[in-house]
C-alpha cells in the first residue's frame, strides 16, 4: 500500500494536519501532489481511508488502523537510522517518561539534572501520575512501575526493590522507640501509615528476619499517600510513621529521624522499567536506560535514591 518511506510520511502528515494544504506545507510539497499520493494509497489499500468534509480529511475506521501501522513503521525506521549512525557523543531527541508521583519525585529530582547535563541535546518530558498509562497509545518511551507487568505488549526490566519501614523522630516524645528490639513493643502506639487504603489501619503487618511475619495492634492516627504529611506529623511528635525508605532515609542521614526495628519491614515491592515491546529502542532511550541502571540499583532504592 505504501510505495516507499515518503508515502508513509505523507500519510502521517495528512492524518496529523487534517488537510492536504497543512500536510503539503509540512512536507514542502504541493497540495495536489499530496492528494495524488493519498488516492494512490487508498487504491492500493482497496478501501476509503478518508472522508471529505470541505477541506478537512476525516479518517475512516480503516484509515485510523492504517495510521497506527504507519506511525509504528516510521518510528522504527527512524530509530534504526539513528542507531546505524553510531553516534559517539551525547544522545539527542525527544524522550517521554512517566512514573508514579512519589517514586518519580524521588528518582527524577536527583537523576534528571545529571542525565540532562550529560545529554544537553535531549528534550525530556516527564509526567508523574498515579493513573494507569497506556505507553503506546499515549506515546511514552519509558515508565517506572512498582510491581510486575503482565502485558505482552510491554517489556519489563528489573531495577530494584522498594521497601517501607517504621520511622520516629530522633528527639522528643517517641524517640525511645528507636531502641525497640521486637514488634510487640509497638502494641498500642500511634502509628501513621503510608497507604491508599484506610481499612484495618489499626493493624500493622511486619516481616522480619528468617521470613518471620507478625501483626501488631496499633493506634490508628493518620493514613496518607503523602510522605511529607507523615514526616511533618512525626516531627510534631504525633507518633511513628510507616514510610518508603527513599522518603525516610534522608531524615536519618540528617539526624532528624531514626529507623525503628531496622531488621523488620512493612512491605517490599519490585521496581521495574517498562517500555513498549514492539517499538525499536532509539539511542536516546537506550542512553537513559543505561544511565538509570547504573545510578539506581536495588541497594540504592532500599537506602537512598
Brief rundown of the structure:
The chain is built from ten helices and 13 strands.
Describe this structure in words.
This protein is an alpha/beta fold and 305 residues long. It has two domains: 5-84, Winged helix-like DNA-binding domain superfamily/Winged helix DNA-binding domain (Arc Repressor Mutant, subunit A, Orthogonal Bundle), CATH 1.10.10; 142-285 and 295-305, D-Maltodextrin-Binding Protein, domain 2, CATH 3.40.190. The protein is 39% helix and 27% strand. The strands form three sheets. Strands 3, 4, 5, 6, 7, 10, 11, 12 and 13 form a nine-stranded mixed sheet that branches. Strands 1-2 form a two-stranded antiparallel ribbon. The two termini are 50 Å apart. The mean pLDDT is 86. It comes from Acanthopleuribacter pedis. InterPro entries: LysR-type_TF_proteobact-type, LysR_HTH_N, LysR_subst-bd, WH-like_DNA-bd_sf, WH_DNA-bd_sf. Belongs to the LysR transcriptional regulatory family.
Give me some keywords for this one.
alpha/beta, D-Maltodextrin-Binding Protein, domain 2, 9-stranded mixed beta sheet, 13 strands, elongated
Amino acid at each position: 500500500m505504501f510505495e516507499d518511506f515518503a508515502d508513509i510520511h505523507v500519510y502521517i502528515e495528512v492524518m496529523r494536519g487534517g488537510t492536504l494544504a497543512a500536510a503539503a506545507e509540512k512536507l514542502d510539497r504541493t497540495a495536489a501532489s499530496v492528494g495524488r499520493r493519498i488516492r494512490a494509497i487508498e487504491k492500493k489499500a482497496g478501501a476509503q481511508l478518508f472522508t471529505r468534509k470541505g477541506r478537512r480529511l476525516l479518517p475512516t475506521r480503516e484509515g485510523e488502523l492504517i495510521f497506527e501501522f504507519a506511525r509504528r513503521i516510521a518510528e522504527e525506521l527512524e530509530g534504526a537510522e539513528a542507531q546505524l549512525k553510531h553516534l559517539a557523543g551525547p544522545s539527542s531527541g525527544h524522550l517521554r517518561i512517566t512514573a508514579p508521583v512519589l517514586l518519580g519525585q524521588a528518582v527524577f529530582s536527583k537523576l534528571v539534572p545529571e542525565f540532562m547535563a550529560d545529554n544537553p541535546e535531549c528534550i525530556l518530558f516527564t509526567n508523574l501520575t498515579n493513573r494507569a498509562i497506556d505507553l503506546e497509545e499515549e506515546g511514552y518511551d519509558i515508565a517506572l512501575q512498582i510491581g510486575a507487568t503482565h502485558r505482552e505488549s510491554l517489556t519489563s526490566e528489573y531495577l530494584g526493590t522498594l521497601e517501607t519501614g517504621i520511622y520516629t523522630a530522633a528527639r522528643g516524645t517517641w524517640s525511645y522507640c528507636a531502641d525497640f528490639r521486637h514488634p510487640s513493643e509497638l502494641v498500642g502506639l500511634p502509628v501513621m501509615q503510608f497507604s491508599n487504603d484506610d481499612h484495618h489501619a489499626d493493624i500493622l503487618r511486619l516481616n522480619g528476619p528468617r521470613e518471620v511475619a507478625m501483626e501488631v495492634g496499633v493506634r490508628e492516627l493518620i493514613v496518607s499517600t503523602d510522605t511529607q504529611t507523615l514526616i511533618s506529623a512525626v516531627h510534631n511528635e504525633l507518633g511513628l510513621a510507616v514510610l518508603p525508605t527513599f522518603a525516610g532515609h534522608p531524615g536519618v542521614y540528617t539526624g532528624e529521624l531514626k529507623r525503628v526495628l531496622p531488621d523488620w519491614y512493612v512491605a517490599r515491592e519490585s521496581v521495574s522499567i517498562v517500555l513498549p515491546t514492539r517499538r525499536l529502542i532509539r539511542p536516546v532511550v537506550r542512553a537513559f536506560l543505561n544511565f538509570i541502571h547504573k545510578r539506581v540499583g536495588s541497594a540504592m532504592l532500599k537506602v537512598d535514591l
